[in-house]
Amino acid sequence: MALPGATKRGDGLMFEKLQLTGKTAIVTGGTKGIGKGIVEGLAQSGANVVVVSRHQDECDAVAKEMEQYGVKGLGVKCDVTIASDVANLMQKTIDAFGHIDILVNNAGSAITKKAEDLTESDWDRVIDMDMKAVFFMAQAAGKHMIAQKSGKIINIASMLGLVAEKQVLPYCVAKGGVLQMTKALALEWAKYNIQVNAICPGYVITDINKEALSEEKIYKHITGKIPMRRFGEVGDIAGAAVFLASPASDYMTGQPIVLDGGWTMQ
User: Which of 32, 154, 229, 234 has the most CB atoms around it within 10 Å of its CB?
Assistant: First the structure.
């Protein structure tokens, strides 16, 4: 049985539903780890990518690397907690590509500290980066999406927005807030054909944490708590991001995709 809208030429088939040719995607924290993996996944699916971090040289390098997939890349230095930087990012994206179709809010920060030892500065640093900046990035991109009556916003939350962990209180609060923000924005902007969803990763091995997580004692301790008995990989998260950025997810909004090996179902 053909999918709704399919023709003899194959229009509407799942492969085509996952293509992003001609779309423009902004990815914050896009030069390392999960962020870089998402940039690569979107580029492989045909999207032009705007790579965002606080370091211009790293942004430029990743943007250039993505051109191997036949797409255009743009690196933009941006501190997502600074309003003028965010405005500059949006303008540079519009100047280069003319539209903003996909926003991935991936940039984040965490502090490991006992609750009784947290300072106001500690709290503000995490909340500003992990929750406040997520909204104002979404608001800035959302204004363009509202005007064009379409858009995809993907917020990288965490399984710790669903369950708690010791000594990362501000992070848990911020990620829980991002999940509620995702629902509220999705509800408010559904009428503009903007889908807002979230991804909640569990423990994922990246180049940044590979050495620490590979230590036998730490590996056994953490994987012993994961029903699937392994860490996630960057590709697991990138695949979900491509789905949420694509037409395949057009009827999905306000929802989290939890990629934690089963951690939160216990």
Answer: 154
